[in-house]
Backbone:
């Protein structure tokens, strides 16, 4: 992947801004209601806990029983990646979290991905659309590319790559409460087409949006994250 940043047309720039804003807004609306209700436990009838780490819990949405569905509907449903949510809290500040994921160039991106099981084979910042300001130094909207031997917790033989729009920063919700957000959403652009089939690289597809809120009573961050991943 070339290290030179792409030049995006104005229409594409506004399109990526709208895409990021709409996903964050929808996730925030769900999180606000969840927070208003006191951040309750997930409904065991709808969600299955798949992982617990310290005070974070990850749940996978239970699929519908397809026994009585016709084959066409079952086939369509099987292609849709499962919804996963992560809720709970972590120690630190929202600024700590965003700082750890903030990368303006290839070198910084390589440093921020060291938390993965294996270091990336390749990574690049394809284009920076929006940067930080005095009001929100963590604001960042960009297009990024990542190639790894494994993606997330998957144990795979083929390499995986990802072309995505990344957005992060701070905002105020409808209650005038401050929150931090992080979004990673796969996109298709000519400058970052999937590699040929004989390259042994499979294009991953991901939508992940996280909302973070600083706890008023402790040095912790409340987390609400939704993701759909197909690898």
Residues:
């Amino acid at each position: 992947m070339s290290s030179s940043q792409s030049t995006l047309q104005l229409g594409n720039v506004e399109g990526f801004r709208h895409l990021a804003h709409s996903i964050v807004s929808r996730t925030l609306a769900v999180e606000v209601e969840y927070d208003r209700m006191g951040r309750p436990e997930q409904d065991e009838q709808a969600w299955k806990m798949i992982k617990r780490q310290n005070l974070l819990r990850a749940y996978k949405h239970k699929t519908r029983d397809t026994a009585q569905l016709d084959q066409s509907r079952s086939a369509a449903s099987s292609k849709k990646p499962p919804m996963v949510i992560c809720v709970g809290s972590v120690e630190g500040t929202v600024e700590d979290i965003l700082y750890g994921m903030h990368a303006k160039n290839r070198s910084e991106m390589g440093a921020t991905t060291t938390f993965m099981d294996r270091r990336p084979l390749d990574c690049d910042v394809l284009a920076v659309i929006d940067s930080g300001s005095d009001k929100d130094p963590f604001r960042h909207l960009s297009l990024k590319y990542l190639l790894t031997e494994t993606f997330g917790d998957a144990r795979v033989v083929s390499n995986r790559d990802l072309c995505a729009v990344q957005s992060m920063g701070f905002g105020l919700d409808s209650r005038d409460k401050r929150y931090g957000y992080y979004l990673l959403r796969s996109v298709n652009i000519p400058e970052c087409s999937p590699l040929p089939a004989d390259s042994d690289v499979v294009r991953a597809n991901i939508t992940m949006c996280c909302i973070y809120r600083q706890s008023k009573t402790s040095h912790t961050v409340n987390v609400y994250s939704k993701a759909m991943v197909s690898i």
In short: The first helix runs from residue 10 to 36. Residues 65-77 have pLDDT under 50 and may be disordered. The chain is about 20% helix and 40% strand. The domain at 10-230 is CATH 3.30.530.20 (Alpha-D-Glucose-1,6-Bisphosphate; Chain A, domain 4).
